[in-house]
Amino acid sequence: MRLGRVIGSLHCTKKYPALEGYKLLIVQPVDSSNNPEGMPLICVDTVDAGVEDVVYFVEARDASIPLKDPLTPSDATITGIIERIDTINRELYRK
Amino acid sequence: MIVGKVVGSVWATRKEERLKGMKLLIVQHYNVDMTPIEDYHICVDLVDAGLGDLVLVTRGSSARQTIQTDKKPVDAIIVGVIDRIDLKK
Q1: CB contact under 8 A, B86 and A9
Q2: Which domain covers residue A53, as residue numbers?
Q3: Which of A37, A86, B18, B59 has the largest CB neighbor count within 10 A?
Q4: Which long-range contacts (CB under 8 A, 24 or more apart) does A84-90 make?
Q5: The pTM is what?
Q6: Mutation for B interface: A16, A22, A28, A74, most B CBs within 10 A
Q7: CATH code of the domain containing B17
């Protein structure tokens, strides 16, 4: 899993039926020091996250495991909203 | 998933047996702020997208997680036609 920050949302009227009812959020991945890293991606949301939330998300085929129908074509799914990140030296993030 | 724009279609008469009947589109990769990226995918279209549509693309082994593509040699599919992108400024 990786860390990311929610930076927006995306709306599709026409979508694959198994994705119906899920919110799609735009996530900017962050590195272990909470700085942006790489390109933003679109994630299926399972925890009702919102813009500005720091989240963790699961990628690749495992991304469909948290969803109701195992045959849902998601390659990135948000599985948690982060309240606090502690590292060996300091507290990195607090909501 | 990533954002892309449908820029063309692919026609193949001789193809893998399990891909018969599937519509293949050329999708150029876009960043969420609408800047084009020099990368593209040939995608199986599952939502009847058209030329010029902005679409949502699922890649990798997750592209096989549908009834239509289960256990088939597919690594990119179109799963939605995008109407709106809201980005925090």
Answers
A1: yes
A2: 2-14+21-94
A3: B59
A4: A85/A3, A85/A34, A85/A54, A87/A32
A5: 0.91
A6: A16
A7: 2.40.50.220
